[in-house]
Amino acid sequence: MALETETRTNALAATDVSAGRLTALADRVGCDGTETIDVRAPATDTSIGEVPDCGETDVERAVDRAREAQSSWAETPVDERREILDRFGDLVLQHRAELLDILQLETGKSRRHAVEEVLDVAMTCSYYADRGDSALGEDRRQGVFPLATTARVTYEPVGVVGAISPWNYPLTLSLTDVLPALIAGNAVVLKPDEKTPYTALALADLLERAGLPEGCFEIVTGRGATVGPALIDRVDYVSFTGSTETGRLVAEQAGRNLIDCSLELGGKNPLIVLDDADIEEAARGAVQACFANAGQLCLAAERIYVADSIADEFREAFVDATKELTLGTGFDFEDDVGSLIDGDQLERVEAHVEDARERGATVLTGGERRPDVGPFCYEPTILTDLEPEATAACEETFGPVVAVESVPNVATAIRKANDSEYGLNASVWTGNRKRGVAVAREIDCGTVCVNDAYISGWAAVDAPMGGFGDSGLGRRHGPEGIRRYLESRTVATSRIGPLDAPPGVPTAWYARGMFALTRLQRRLPTVASVKRRLRDAGL
Ligand code: NAD
Predict the structure, then answer these.
(1) Phi, psi (rounded to 5 degrees) for 48
(2) Distance (Å, rounded) from C-alpha 271 to C-alpha 428?
(3) CA-wise closest residue to 222 among 66, 44, 61, 17
(4) How far is CA 522 from CA 184, 360, 501, 516, in A?
(5) Which positions are catalytic?
(6) Which residue is closest in CA terms to ligand 1's atom 34?
(7) Contact 165/174 with Cβ under 8 angstroms?
(8) Is 471 left (phi over 0), alpha (psi -120 to 50) or beta?
(9) Side by side, which strands form the sheet with 160-164?
């Protein structure tokens, strides 16, 4: 593994971002108190600045500002809202260098993985600017008595959406749920993770420059345990991305408040290599699936099941490709894999690998922390012979660690892939795409990519994305990503007056008539049944 030996001591000095710029971003947060949170660069474990440690009153004020702005935002023609999103997408691309620097400063990720986030936000903007209004129109539904009655559905924004985001993809995950909320006419109050507030603040700055009215996108920085619950108690919908453990707390509180929520949570994602896979391609795909963002990716693969007949060859190719990766903390495109976020994450990864070793697992490559590269750097690690009870086999590691296991047949691979409480993302590698799709349909995950690690699933913004089981509730992206932020209102009309017994008609007669009418209606063909018949007849 090629390594960068020089550890930087001052991360900020290695970028074009000034301390003054970060202070100006922090000043965007409306906060009464004087308490602050130190934001540190994982590359050097040094401070890059401080942001306000907001309390409950600050959250209350932010939600009040958002609520005030929301009503006129909802009345702004949707074309104007689309234009603002479109301009914002342009600004994100124009200011990519600063966004990449801030992202790298806060997360320690390699620049190549930071690029994925900037591209993703620009693409998501294009999608919602172009298609966002399609979910907002009026729907005509079937009335109870066709011709005599009608039913029309209109959609309205829920009001103020609370978004809570994690540190691992702070640019993408701060915005991917915010943009559809905004296009639908909601205001949003975002609570970014305390480790990565500047990325979110830089985005708020660009949204303002794109023309988003004041108050429509508020940010409250602060501790999850304080700001999170304070926000959930005041908003009309919660969009949460983070761990399953916190997701349960969010769901409980949202349930008590009778507000809806979407939860994008953890995963223990499987990757399956079928016996007809191109081995070099599958090995390259596995490297991306397992080590993107140093494995701190909810969609990352942590379990590989490979067909017996090609297992030795695949393992060798995968280990060789992993050894080629460069580990480093540079602010250029030299390094493949960056740092972990902090000491807690490093300890978690180390504990999982140590536990695996103690239980007899073999480390095929990696398995060591690299303080010579960065204080929280850990080598991309491949394990084999991992005991099913090992922590790394049962729990999400959320680091650059994967276990490879050979399996006798496809059925076993599918059974093992599905033997998890999680169900976020999976990846299948095969020389026959049709076979890959058939296997994919057997896997209990919200997204399954065939011959790709995760990008084809994530970047298909028109398709819903989310988790089965403990990986979450609800779906982001596509029309589903907007509909969750809308209240529907059905307006039904009657052309024949009240649907009740006409005056003077005895109830028994009326009941008899209604039963006869219902029987008749059940026999008459409906539009859907005619369509089904035509389809069955091949027309
Ligand atoms: P986390 O749950 O600790 O934190 C996520 C966010 O929740 C942070 O902003 C945090 O401040 C906030 N928070 C903490 N306590 C809270 C509370 N009581 N109420 C409300 N909010 C609270 O998650 P993490 O460890 O920072 O992130 C990593 C986890 O997130 C992993 O499990 C990963 O798989 C998951 N994740 C999932 C997705 C997805 O799309 N499914 C994406 C990224 C990360």
Answers:
(1) -115, -10
(2) 6
(3) 61
(4) 38, 65, 21, 10
(5) 264, 298
(6) 266
(7) yes
(8) alpha
(9) 217-219, 187-191, 160-164, 237-241, 260-264, 472-473
pTM attached to this predicted model:
0.94
- The Å distance, Cα 168 to ligand 1 centre, comes to 9
Structure tokens that stand for 197 in this block? 């507030």
Give counts: helices (H), strands (E), the chain: 20, 20
Does the beta carbon of 298 sit less than 6 angstroms from any atom of ligand 1? Answer: yes
SS3 of residue 429 by DSSP: strand
Name the average pLDDT for the chain.
Answer: 95
62 backbone φψ class: left, alpha, beta (φ>0; ψ -120 to 50) = alpha
Could you say which DSSP state residue 400 is in?
S
Q: Could you read off the pLDDT of 266-320 as tens digits, one per residue? A: 999 999 999 999 999 999 999 999 999 999 999 999 999 999 999 999 999 999 9
Does 5 score more than 90 pLDDT?
Answer: no
From the CA of 244, how far away is ligand 1's center (Å)? 8
Judge whether residue 190 has pLDDT over 50: yes
Mutate to test the pocket of ligand 1, among 298, 420, 477 (most ligand atoms within 8 A of CB): 298
According to the model, what pLDDT value does residue 9 have? 56
Give, as one character, the DSSP assignment of residue 378: B
CA distances from 149 to 31, 326, 529 (A): 53, 68, 20
Q: How far is it, in rounded angstroms, from Cα 426 to Cα 269?
A: 6
Counting atoms of ligand 1 from 1, which one is nearest the CA of 245?
2
pLDDT tens sequence across 434-456: 999 999 999 999 999 999 999 99
Question: How would you classify residue 434: left for phi > 0, otherwise alpha for psi between -120 and 50, otherwise beta?
Answer: alpha
pLDDT at 360: 97
Residue whose tokens read 């790709």: 452
Check pocket membership of 30 for ligand 1, CB cut-off 6 A.
no
Task: Report whether residue 166 contacts ligand 1, using a CB cutoff of 6 Å.
Answer: yes
* Residue whose CA lies nearest to ligand 1 atom number 14: 224
Residue type at 91 in one-letter notation: L
Residue 59 CA to residue 46 CA, distance in Å, equals 28
